[in-house]
Amino acid sequence: MSYVYVAAGEGGLRIIDVSSPSNPFEAGYYQTPRPGGAANTFLSDPYMYVATYGCGLQIYQFYGAGVEKESEKYGAVSASIKLLQNPVRGNFIRLVLTTQNAHYAKLELYNLLGEEVKTFSFNNLSFGGNKVELSIDELPTGIYFLRLEDSP
Fold first, then answer.
1. What is the predicted pLDDT for the residue at 1?
2. Per-domain residue ranges for the chain?
3. Where residue 64 falls among pLDDT bands split at 50, 70, 90?
4. What confidence score (pLDDT) does residue 117 get?
5. What are the distances in angstroms from CA 33 to CA 9, 51, 62, 75?
6. Cα–Cα distances in Å, from 50 out to 8, 12, 30, 42, 130?
7. DSSP string spanning the chain?
8. Whose CA is closest to 82, among 129, 124, 121, 47?
9. Mean pLDDT, the chain, as a whole number?
10. Binning pLDDT at 50, 70 and 90, where does residue 77 land?
11. Residue of 32, 27, 26 whose CA lies nearest to 8
């Protein structure tokens, strides 16, 4: 993927995916300190250096597009989800399920009305990151929420 990093003042650091030049989209962002926000950027892989108005130099590392949600069901973080593409395009959700121990997980997909529209179950997940591709070709275009439930 090809990214462009934009210092957007009060809008922070914006990360634009330009791998398809005719269809760029925002792949992620960091909200930089206020007042002032991001003034200038410099990329030295894997770090992004951001000069801010009045708040000094900030250093960021972009791991990929997506939203990360962690579960604290058992005290320490036991599992997390990271979408590899947000917004999702095509017929699949590509994500990484990260676990502290091999265990069972259930991923539920909800529409804007709060209705569960699809459930995915995973048995014997490996410790660490598990790349998963989930078929959603039967769902209409829209906004959905993911809920991860895990157990040891």
1. 59
2. 3-61, 68-151
3. low
4. 92
5. 10, 10, 17, 30
6. 11, 9, 10, 7, 32
7. --EEEEE-BTT-EEEEE-SSTTS-EEEEEE---TTT-EEEEEEETTEEEEEETTTEEEEEE---SS-EEEE-TBSB--EEEEESSSS--SSEEEEEEEESSS-EEEEEEE-TTS-EEEEEEE-SPPSEEEEEEEE-TTSPSS--EEEEEEE-
8. 129
9. 76
10. very low
11. 32
Residues 79/71, Cβ–Cβ less than 8 Å: yes
Claim: this prediction has a pTM higher than 0.85 = no
Domain spanning 68-151, CATH architecture: Sandwich (2.60)
